[in-house]
Amino acid sequence: MIKFLVVHCSDSPQGRGDDAATVHRWHLERGWSGIGYHSVILETGELQQGRPDYWQGAHVMDFDGDGEGNNNDSLGVCLIGLGGDATESQKAVLRLVLNAWLAKYPEAEVVGHRDLDSRKSCPGFDVKGWFYSRR
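The structure corresponding to this sequence follows.
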């Protein structure tokens, strides 16, 4: 059951041209089985597919070793760029992605990565405040 819709950022320099293929390569280099996010939104607002929604993500890890990461009950979307610097185009598409996921998983909660891991600042803005204040 999907409980969380998690927003991330790539924390990479603006304008470098990173995309889903770039993130896929980074994650392969870490020894993962490919891109950990289900969707990627470029700075232009272009939406790119990551993992299929039915495939467990690799984006909210089990850092404390208790075996309770959130990859099995979440979907993840990554905004390309530095935390807090999402473009208006990215945010418009992000809202569409999140609303589409909520239509499938109405009990899910929209959160930022930092809401599930206090050691993270990703994606650099208050996702819950942004999303739920304008719904």
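The two ends are 23 Å apart (CA to CA).
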